[in-house]
Amino acid sequence: MIAFYQKLKELRRAKNITQEQLAGYLCVSAQAVSRWECGTACPDISMLPQIAGFFEITVDELLSVNEQEKRREIDTLVAETSSQIDHNITEEPIRRLRDGLNRYPNNDRLLCTLMYALYAASEDAVFCAAHDAEILSIADRILTYSEDHRCRDEARRLLFRHYCDTERKSEAQIIAQDMPLCETCLEVNLYWGLDGEERLSHLKDRISRDMQYLTWDIWAYSVHADLPPEEKQELEQLYQKIEMMVNEKFA
Length: 251
Prior knowledge:
The chain is an all-alpha fold. The chain is built from 14 helices and no strands. The protein is elongated, with a radius of gyration of 23 Å.
């Protein structure tokens, strides 16, 4: 699949116009068009219809999109980079996701996964300072333009955590007001739409997940509470016992 920056360059040359002329039509600088054609930056998503209209093609044609191929490529990239991030690998996922966004500018899922990678990398104080502005920018883009409610919810979650981690609790509380309630989430309500083995399988998954949350809460309480050593040990034994029981019954 041809990348966006290559497609733009081909279209401009086929129309026999300069970067300056294209920039004038789009009301941007010639340097901006140059960066787009070099693949070092992408136009804002709101500009794509205007660019496509100038060349008298559709936005999909501008992006050289085959929808099935696009979906498969994005699914694979999101799954692979998310797995890497979960294993504390962030530098390569950030690079790969940036490459993906050069091919599919402003794709919600890729932006959201890049935000996750930047947030994960920001556990290091130096990275945190370097990535702060980009994390906030991506969150703003997703919350302003995205119609994918899952990406919007994930962007809120990551932004909330980022604000908490960087001692901006008042901003975090504002974000929290728009976060979905547990009672309205899919995992809690899907039970009512299932029957038979599907319902049982869903319940087993939910029990396992709920117990993971419970054991994490017990662990966090034991870490933060001012408890004598013997009580901390009792709590540790409790969550280990719960984990063992869940693994035996519902794994």
